[in-house]
Amino acid sequence: MSKVVFLLVPKLHLLDLAGAAQVFSTAENVLTEAGGPSAYRLRYVAEAPEVLTAQGLPVRAETAWPELGAADLVMVPGWRSPGTAGGPRLSASQPRHLFEHHRGGGTVASVCSGAFALGQAGLLDGRRCTTHHDLQEELARRFPDAAVVRDVLFTEDDRVVTSAGIASGIDLALHLVAVRHGPAVAGRVAREMVVFARRNGDEPQASAMLRYRSHLSDAVHRVQDRIDARFAEPLRLPDLAAESGVSQRTLTRRFAEATGMSPLRYQSVLRLERAEHLIGQGATVDAAARAVGFADARMLRRLRAGAGK
């Protein structure tokens, strides 16, 4: 049985903690219900017996570290942004615990700003790592010997595993379960948790559905809602214009002003992104093309070639 030890710091984000903890807890249930031995025991350690989260909910923790072996995992959830003010600093002993666990053959992981704790422990030097997209430049500035990878969900380098913001901790934890128990078990855990899809670490932190939403046009948002929900279906510009309440010409102009592209180009971007996910999960190009609504794979191949895939 492996221990999964969460190091808790003041103002930690609940989802950073709960998302990953739920994965390992669900994995334990899946494995034991299948007749296997107990796989995980979750522990929580902190400097004080009670830690206040960023969301105002206090959580309880042990103040003494358990004995750890090479099969155990230590994970640091993120806290309300370290930013330039520095955020919570670890106690003198906490970086040592992280460093010594890794030196003993164990795995150390972080979610979001938890990467800064790994940096304080000297575990990022010379290694690939990532964090939330808003914090990547700060992480690179504070730890110049770290190889900060931008716009990925998680990285793994010599038993140092780092993930991006908030919900990406679920992706990281599912990846670790897949490494230890196989993709079928990780897939079962994802289904139990009603997670839409287990994403690869190299996938971008922000999907196309989010990247083109930083505008104030209600008409364009309504059309994007329609395309987001039905991008695999044939969509006609007159129908989209009716959805927005403006003319086709006005919609095309406003959509371009808001997103930098036409509505149908936006639909193609969504199709390409979803197809790349399916291909990354093992689908053929032909199967991915059919799944996202292309009549054949030639258009998908042209789009992938244009994107350098």
Classified in CATH, the superfamily of the largest domain is Class I glutamine amidotransferase (GATase) domain
The residue-averaged pLDDT reads 88
Rg over CA atoms: 22 Å
Largest sheet, spatial ordering of strands: 2-1-5-6-10-9
Distance between the termini: 41 Å
Q: At the third CATH level, what is the topology name of the largest domain? A: Rossmann fold
Shape: elongated
Q: Mind telling me which CATH architecture of the largest domain this is?
A: 3-Layer(aba) Sandwich
Which CATH class of the largest domain is shown? Alpha Beta
User: Helix content range of the residues, please?
Assistant: 40-55%
Number of strands: 10
Strand residue percentage: 5-15%
**Count of helices?**
13
The arrangement of helices and strands along the chain is EHEEEEHEHEHEEEHHHHHHHHH
Give the low-pLDDT segments. none
- Main beta sheet: 6 strands, mixed
The structural domain count equals 2
Structural class: alpha/beta
Word description of this protein:
This protein is an alpha/beta fold. It has two domains: about 1-190, 3-Layer(aba) Sandwich (Rossmann fold); about 210-305, Homeodomain-like (Arc Repressor Mutant, subunit A, Orthogonal Bundle), CATH 1.10.10. It is built from 13 helices and ten strands. It has helices at about 15-35, 95-105, 115-120, 135-140, 170-180, 185-190, 210, 220-230, 235-245, 250-260, 265-280, 285-290, 295-305, and strands at about 1-5, 40-45, 50, 60, 75, 105-110, 130, 145-150, 155, 160-165. The strands form three sheets. Strands 2-1-5-6-10-9 form a six-stranded mixed sheet, sandwiched between helices. A two-stranded antiparallel ribbon has the order 3-4. Helix 8 packs parallel to helix 11. The longest helix has 20 residues, at about 15-35. It is elongated and about 65 Å long. The two termini are about 40 Å apart. The model has no long low-confidence stretch (mean pLDDT about 90).
